[in-house]
Fold this sequence. Notes:
Blueprint: H1 13-25, H2 29-42, H3 47-59, H4 63-76, H5 81-93, H6 97-110, H7 116-127, H8 131-144, H9 149-159, H10 164-168, H11 176-186, H12 197-207, H13 211-218, H14 223-233, E1 242-247, H15 253-258, E2 262-269, H16 272-280, E3 286-289, H17 292-298, E4 302-307, H18 318-327, E5 328-341, E6 346-348, E7 354-357, H19 358-367, E8 371-383, E9 386-396
Parallel strand pairs: 1-2, 1-4, 2-3, 4-5, 5-7
Antiparallel strand pairs: 5-9, 6-7, 8-9
Amino acid sequence: MKRKKASPPARTLEALIEVASQHAERGELADAEARYREALAIAPDHLGVLTLLGLLLVDSEDIDGAIDLLERARVVAPGFAPVQLALGSAYAAAGHDGLAVAAMEVAIKLDTTSTVPLERLARHHIVARRPREAVGLLRRILRRDPTHAHAKFLLAGLTGDRSKDAIVETPTAENREQIDRAEEARGTAKIVESPPPALIADLFDTYAARFDQHLVEELQYGVPKSLAALVATAGAMPDRSWRVLDLGCGTGLAGIELRAYARTLIGSDLSPRMVARARQRAIYDELHVEDLAVTLARERDIDLIVAADVFIYVGPLDATIAACTTALRPGGLLAFSVERSVADDVVLQQTLRYAHADSYILSLASTQGLAVEHAEPTILRVDNGAPVAGVLYVLRR
């Protein structure tokens, strides 16, 4: 007589949460969601599970599902700041500006010590083009943590001033007008430090879901296509014979234009969500989530390096151009775009993007022994109704 097969032991709530968290840390979002939903079946009102699953669904871009779960969590614990903050992020991702701001402001009131809610709302205001509101929040962050690198960088860009007084001064009814006039007069400043990589990664993670539509349709962005055309005039043949590196590949807009030249197409980007979208295109042979400095340190004998609207987030390019030169084979091409500075070599603008002077780029090329194949002035995009002037470069090692 055959012995009946024993059924597997039921997992405890705690075990399911632990396994789900492990899946999430490894990027196995579908498996993590399945385990969280099992846990939710055991404890439908469990605050931790509702919140963690809600955040997971934001990462999976199931925004409606995330909002539903996080609203349930808010009913369970309306005074829990992380739930309010998570809900604010979900509403922001869904494009519900008023609801996002309201939830984040509640989180700030509930958590009077952390800088996280303040930074989250400041970034939201920056994206929504409300720099004045963002500046006030960034100064509050620096009063809590004077060493906060993200807040320092964002405040420097928005105000054009890195002085201690400018950072810690708090607008009041009496000095608001004076501060505003000073900030408008300063405009931009010669600030050359590179931004914190984690800040750039997080900003683009937030932007990933609507990146293509916003950039191509709303900003009339055509830099990848234009760079590919210049590369062709510099002698590149669409015979899929080259080893091509797409720095800051984003969602793969440049990869679409570069595939015809590439035997091997390599993409790298700081943002995991951007890379996930690039992977969906199935055009890259390799994709890496990493800083471009790491990519360039590893790669050698590259035929073509492309950086479409990437160096505007790097700042000083001395080390980057040097690393690109080392990664290229002799005769290899470096194609990239920059926003144009008519004053200083490197300028951090109020848009939080860097601009670079023509003379600065040409000096770097000369220092590295790179020949200038093309230096073409262009309009990179239309931002808030205004054309953004830039230059497309193709340099040859």
